[in-house]
Amino acid sequence: MTISQKSGSSKALLKTIGAYLSADRADAVENALNFAIDSHHGQLRDSGEPFIEHPIATALWLAEMRLDTTTIQAALLHDVMEDCGVTFKELETDFGTDVAKLVDGVTKLKRLDMISENSAMRRQASTPEATRAASIRKMLVAMAEDVRVVLIKLSDRLHNMRTLKHLPVPKQQRISRETLDIYAPLAHRLGMNEIKWQLEDEAFRYLMPRQYKSISRLVNRKRAEREIYTEAAIKAIQRPLQKAGLKCSVEGRVKHLYSTYNKLQRYERIGRKFDEIYDLIAIRVIAESVGDCYSALGVVHSKWRPVSGQFDDYIASPKENMYQSLHTSVRGPGNYPIEVQIRTQDMHDIAEEGVASHWMYKGDDDGSPRIDNFDQKMSWLRQLVDWQRELSGDDEYLATVRTDILQDQVFVYTPQGDVKDLPAGATPIDFAYRIHTDLGHNTVGAVVNGKLTALNTQLQNGDVVEIRKARIPRGPSLDWLNPDLGYLVTGSARTKVKQWFRKQERQSNIRRGKDLLRKEMRRLGLNKSEKEIVAIMDYESLDELAEALGVGQISIARVAETISPEPDEVFTPEFTPGQPPADQTRGLVVMGEPGLITRVAKCCSPVYGDEITGYLTRGRGVTVHRRNCPILRDAKDPERHTPVAWGHHETTYASRLQIEAFDRVGLIRDITNVVSSENVNIHSLTSEEDEKTNACTVSLTVYTTGVEQLSRLFSRVETIPGVSSVFRVTEAQDPKQKELREPRKPRNSSS
């Protein structure tokens, strides 16, 4: 097929590669193009266009970055194994081993058409996450062997996102969520900011269409005004740069929709407005050398007043994805905030293309190194291979990659000066497990920057961490798996802790799980039988459920959210006339009866997440109870029962708590600090002390968003030194229950 016979997209590709590849290499790409055209002949996409347009678009985006011949060929052929029945051997024979390996790495796993009759297997295989997790795992492991696999995959995903409108809405949502959770963070980790923001904005469009349109209108509302301002700011800074003898190019920078949305969300939480976002107006200065970058920074700061706390030096301390630049926010003309980025041209190329710049064709050879110490900077890829050997489940593997690789990273040091990269928010225990599994299991203390530090302290860039190990092996604490306590962030460390508990004796795990279950039932005021709990949680026996709890396979918080209270005692409450707080009923919806007044029953105090039902009260609308409230159980007028549901608005609900503790100086202060740190409002607080035993009972009413936040609050309060138990109190509880509670010894430390 001659060039004149090819489609417009084919011609565009050949023209692009012809501008930077030698003639023989361009011929090799054209051979791959012809092979792909023949292989996909007659195939159509959901949009109705020929299928070949997709691999050509994938290859064209990579060619625009001037990538090497092998990558362009593999991009053109990336679907022929999956959709055309072409074998690995055929590709290897025609195009070489490297191309065949890249295509094999990119190839997605086919859906399992034949599913076993076994119900468990059928459930797993029919779950979309099962196949997707296996496919992504294969891609990540292949990426560890050759990063070009993911370059092709990212380009493939970008074109799919741009043509997503032709798919049904559920598929749009699924693909967009996967893009936002996996592919955009992966592009960021690889330093490919250009494709990162494009993927994010496309996914944002389909996942949150209302917010997407709102942000678009907000950004476009003053676009012309901002463009005029940006041009004026560029001219205003170019003159002093030239006077200083600096040869710099200055350009405006586009602010992208999804990042604007995220920043606006953060600003709203701290009470700031849209116009206060510092980098809505941004300019970029490209200097000739590193020295010129710092000189340009001095010129910018002498011209415009810098904003306090808004300077970052990523040249001296590059980000984990190789990004380098100086960032500063200043007050520009009219005192308006401007973000300024200053970098060299090489830094700019790496900032935009990231790891792809390593394979950019330079003319003298193909794919020669452009990034210094590339293998060392990509050392995190080796973790993907290590986890491939250690983790058997695809879901577990993907969850570990999400937490340990795709999140922002911090760099911390061992006392010997070795650098370890960990996800942002990681703790000393995460650090210990990254060093060695046995060190993690037996961690009893941590010294950070020379100071003894709590084991759930979040590490910061540059911290020097020394781990204190137990003299006698003792194993990890089950508390480390409680996400509410913040001891572990990395998925790999959590997996190692779970594996340790799985190796312990089964009876020991069962006893531990039963203790956890009894404790949670007691503190939440739940009163279900063992048989009911097992049935609700869908386990064969209490021992199986207890073992799952004991090894950390499921969390006690999940049990708390599932089980509803059912008091044994029947009583007659005294209703206080008047309306409850407005926010107590905002989230309640009376099914089929819009506009009815609702009030929350004080007898059982339902909170968001409880199973609820309504009772039509003459003259006072609908009173909302827990489904198992004894008042409704004995109600004589079943026709006055009405279904109600929690609405979509997050609101707060009153809960009465009781804390048993040993009295000490600062106890009340510590309790209120912990409650406040969870963003929980305290409505009232009283305490009673027993001078003989030094015991103290603290009663307080708090407003929480529901059972999940309440359970998290309990976990945090129980770590306070001196606290023996905390539980939820309702008017339906038998006062004698208090006598049945077994007091625990106070904790001396949180670790």
Class from secondary-structure proportions: alpha+beta
Whole-number mean pLDDT? 76
Overall number of domains: 6
Percent of residues in helices comes to 40-55%
> Could you describe the largest sheet, including whether it forms a barrel?
5 strands, mixed
Poorly predicted ranges: 108-128, 364-369, 565-584, 732-751
Widest sheet, order of strands: 1-2-5-4-3
Brief descriptors of the model:
751 residues; alpha+beta; Hypothetical protein af1432; Beta Polymerase, domain 2; Ubiquitin-like (UB roll); five-stranded mixed beta sheet; four-stranded mixed beta sheet; 20 strands; 16% strand; globular; disordered C terminus
Please render the helix and strand layout as text.
Elements (H helix, E strand, L loop, with lengths): L7 H11 L4 H17 L13 H12 L4 H8 L3 H4 L4 H8 L1 H10 L12 H8 L1 H18 L2 H15 L6 H21 L3 H15 L1 H13 L1 H21 L5 E5 L3 H13 L12 E6 L2 H14 L1 E9 L12 E6 L5 E8 H9 L20 H4 L3 H10 L3 H11 L4 E5 L5 E5 L4 H8 L1 H5 L1 E6 L2 E3 L11 E5 L21 H13 L2 H19 L5 H7 L5 H9 L5 H7 L25 E3 L7 E3 L11 E6 L3 E6 L3 H4 L7 E2 L1 E3 L6 E10 L4 H11 L3 E10 L4 E10 L2 H11 L5 E7 L7 H4 L11
Parallel strand pairs: 2-5, 12-14
Antiparallel strand pairs: 1-2, 3-4, 4-5, 6-7, 8-9, 8-10, 11-16, 13-14, 13-15, 17-19, 17-20, 18-19
Helix pairs in contact: 1-2, 1-3, 2-4, 3-4, 3-10, 4-7, 4-10, 6-7, 7-10, 9-10, 9-19, 9-20, 10-12, 11-12, 12-13, 13-15, 24-26, 27-30
